[in-house]
Amino acid sequence: MALTLDDKYVSPAELTGYVRSALEDLPQNTFSLNQYLPDTPVDDIDWRGETGGNGLTEVAQFRSFDAESPIGSRPGVSTISGSLPPISEKIRLGEYDRLKLRNSTDGIKNAILDDGVRQARKIKARAEVGRGELLMTGKVTIAENGLGIEADFGRKASHSPTAAILWSAAGSTPIDDLLAWVEVYRATNGIKPEVMLVAQQVVSVLMRNEQIRALTLPAGSTVQIVTIDAIQALLRSYGLPPLEVYEAQVAGPSSTAVDILDPTKILFLPPAGNKIGETQWGITAEQQSADYNLDSTIEPGIVVGSYSDNDPVAQWTKASAIMLPIAPNTNLTLAGKVL
User: Fold this and answer.
1) Looking at the Swiss-Prot or TrEMBL record, what is one Pfam family this protein matches (predicted)?
2) Where does residue 274 rank: exposed (0-12), middle (13-18), buried (19+ CB within 10 A)?
């Protein structure tokens, strides 16, 4: 298929600007993991990060007057790097659709603009899926369309625990598990987690859990379900991070709903100001193409162009980016399996 860049209806510059503006106006409450791995434009096509080391701050030592200064040491780290992978998708405005919009240049333009936003949103959704995987596992694995890469940021095995008794089973002790995991987190980082992301499924199990009910309800109570407010108060009384429900989903194969975060796990995340990593957006080949004629000052990110095909006659809209979430400080996350 030989497609030709076509600015008859809308130029790449106008289309890209429109799409980026539309993305900024979208509600941010659905895909919210960028607050932990924020979007960061980079003037490059490669990424680089250091993994390992210790989150605790070492202390300097006093010395005697006229004595030589002690020699400091660096934490053990390793550097990993790679190329930011490309991601793109195009959609067809076919011959039949164009005939329906005949003599309507504005109609075709509006259809292209809508398609551009739709394709860009799909790229943004894929970025959120990558962020979710990285926060949950400490690595990003891509095996799509012949591309196979894995960026493993070396999260400690102790930051991927499993409850001795899953919380949905009799005899489970969620509070004991959480206290132990917070201590693991604090021992690594010198701070406690600020928040605990969970699916509603986990909340529902906690509301009926035997230990939770025993710690929140008066003796002899016949109440079977504890309120979320009571659970939050209980967590607070034990110095544990509050629950925050995250339930974003994307369409998987056959349009089935797929959770971005594993609904069987809890995820500890750090206080604001403690950077886990970022989602890097690099410069695409399209952005550097003279045919796209984009302003040289435009930030790296998603770019969109309109293309034409003559056999059969069709108009195509393609959104492109190169992107990858990275997490050099992946030990600031801890994901515990509880269901």
Assistant:
1) Phage_cap_E
2) middle
In a domain, 264, yes or no: no
State pLDDT tens for residues 157-196.
Answer: 999 999 999 999 999 999 999 999 999 999 999 999 999 9
Of the candidates 88, 93, 87, the one whose C-alpha atom is nearest the C-alpha of residue 113 is 93
Give Cα 297 distance to the centre of its chain: 27
Q: How many CA atoms lie within 13 A of 57 on its CB side?
A: 3
Provide the β-strand partners of residue 314.
Answer: 309
Check whether residue 234 and residue 194 sit in a common domain.
yes
Is 227 found in the same domain as 91?
no
Strand partners, 334: 268
Give me 263's structure tokens: 């609904």
Question: Structural domain tally of the chain?
Answer: 2
| Cβ count near 70 (within 10 Å) | 10
Residues 89 and 219 in one domain: no
Quote the distance between the C-alpha of residue 41 and its chain's center.
15
Would you state the structure tokens that stand for residue 233, as one six-digit string?
A: 């108060």
Domain that holds residue 231: 159-245
Phi/psi at 76 (5° precision): -70, 120
Q: d(Cα 266, Cα 161) in Å, to the nearest integer?
A: 10
71 lies in some domain: no
Contact in structure between 223 and 194 (CB atoms under 8 Å): no
Closest residue by Cα to residue 268 from 173, 158, 171? 158
Quote the longest CA-to-CA distance of the chain.
Answer: 89
> What's the half-sphere exposure (Cβ side, CA atoms, 13 Å) at 318?
23
- Separation between Cα atoms, residue 167 and residue 303, nearest integer Å: 45
> What is the separation of C-alpha 162 from the centre of its chain, rounded to a whole number of angstroms?
22
What would the pLDDT profile of 232-262 be if each residue is shown by its tens digit? 999 999 999 999 999 999 998 778 999 999 9
